[in-house]
Write a structure and sequence with these properties.
386 residues, alpha/beta, eight-stranded parallel sheet, 12% strand, globular, binds flavin mononucleotide
Length: 386
């Protein structure tokens, strides 16, 4: 498949909207309740403007970024996204391999559908995101599995103690665990490329996708409730469990879903390796602040050099550069790369990453910066009243 007519990440969204059944597209695109936070994540970028500088010799540019002693060619990674197998057969693998080829981090969701051992084999260095229950005996068994698979970076999502209220899923008949019903069947029949290329292919190759990486073993099918319950115990998770994890986990340990500066400060106190500022792409607490707005306060709450990362609504290189100017080390992109995987598999994701790379490189030059560390907060102005 040629991607020359995909000129921006939004073009993948347009193509995925046509290709995926409404319920599946809605599951990916949607947010919680009235979708205020989903919209505000995007709207925040228009409330901040660049102040570029000229005549700065930007002929030798690089968007390299160092994280824990490793260099990445861009300050960009792929956010964890569960049940990616609904969008494409083995989408987790397509995302992992595209990120690996580009030298960028990919965070494998705990709710993913390809066993993490296979992902680590084909895309070594993949990070793992856990939806941990507040039960150290069960956590210990998951950690053993992660270590056996040579996982180095563990991300604990802290914004999902209970399920978000995603009315759009309910309206379209989309449930987790997944259950087929007449309206979904009709939806599938109206999208034959998905029906044959994803649904039939997946059933033929390996049967109904499974919760492969939620717990210590390959779990049940996504049409079934896991033995311990899907979210049982997540509402018990507390800072004590994070302290326990810190003592137990020898690799890098991050929190995802940090929105309050005091939580970022606590992560520093517990000697974690970084935080990801996130409101789960507007899919959990509707009305939570946009992540671009939350970012500066969190950067201010941690010591200089402590990695603060962010996700939520990033669609352009310019968006990424605004977060970098506010002090973000890495920006994670979610939905657009899921759409790229749905439309074009690994090649689609690589093309999407290439688009972001081009935008970041060009805009860095236009800002008058040869390197990311020249891009500081004085290049941004708030635009009041918008
Ligand atoms: C379909 C989908 C599934 C997601 N699943 C997870 C998940 O399993 N774990 C997690 O921490 N975040 C999950 N998220 C949230 C993303 O990691 C990320 O925070 C968000 O999508 C970033 O916003 P963006 O999609 O606007 O780039 C999911 C998001 C989407 C769209």
């Amino acid at each position: 498949m040629a991607f020359s007519h995909f000129l921006s990440l939004d073009d993948f969204e347009t193509a995925a909207r046509r290709r995926l059944p409404r319920a599946v597209f809605g599951f990916v695109a949607g947010g919680a309740e009235a979708e205020h936070s989903l919209r505000d994540n995007r709207a925040a970028f228009a409330r901040v403007g660049f102040v570029p500088r000229g005549l700065r010799d930007v002929s030798r540019r690089s968007a390299d970024v160092a994280l824990w002693g490793r260099s990445h060619p861009l300050p960009v990674g792929i956010a964890p996204m569960g049940i990616a197998g609904m969008c494409r057969h083995e989408a987790d693998l397509a995302l992992a391999q595209a990120a690996h080829a580009a030298g960028l981090p990919f965070i494998l969701s705990g709710s993913s559908n390809v066993p993490l051992e296979r992902i680590q084999q084909l895309a070594p260095g993949t990070w793992y995101q856990g939806y941990f229950p507040g039960d150290t005996a069960r956590m210990e068994r998951i950690l053993q599995r992660l270590q056996a698979a040579r996982t180095e970076v563990l991300v604990v999502t802290i914004d999902t103690c209970v399920a978000g209220n995603r009315e759009n899923n309910a309206r379209r008949g989309f449930t987790v665990p997944f259950a087929l019903n007449p309206s979904l069947m009709l939806d599938g029949l109206l999208h034959p490329r998905w029906l044959l290329g994803v649904f039939a292919r997946t059933l033929y190759r390996g049967g109904v996708p499974r919760w492969c990486n939620l717990y210590e073993e390959i779990g049940c099918r996504i049409t079934e409730e896991p033995a311990h319950g899907f979210r049982t115990g997540r509402d018990l998770l507390s800072w004590e469990h994070i302290a326990w994890l810190r003592a137990r986990w020898p690799g890098r340990l991050l929190l995802k879903g940090v929105m309050h500066p005091a939580d970022a400060a606590e992560a520093v106190r517990l000697q974690l390796d970084g935080v990801i500022v996130s409101n789960h792409g507007g899919r959990q607490l509707d009305g939570s602040l946009s992540t671009l707005q939350a970012l500066p306060e969190i950067v201010a709450a941690v010591p200089e050099g402590f990695p603060v990362m962010v996700d939520g609504g990033f669609r352009r290189g310019a968006d990424v550069l605004k977060a970098v100017a506010f002090g973000a080390r890495m920006v994670f992109v979610g939905r657009p790369l899921m759409y790229a995987a749905a439309v074009g598999g690994q090649a689609g994701v690589r093309h999407a990453i290439g688009l972001l790379h081009g935008e970041i490189d060009r805009n860095l030059a236009l800002l008058g910066c040869a390197r990311l560390d020249e891009l500081t907060r004085d290049r941004l102005r708030a635009i009041p009243g918008i």
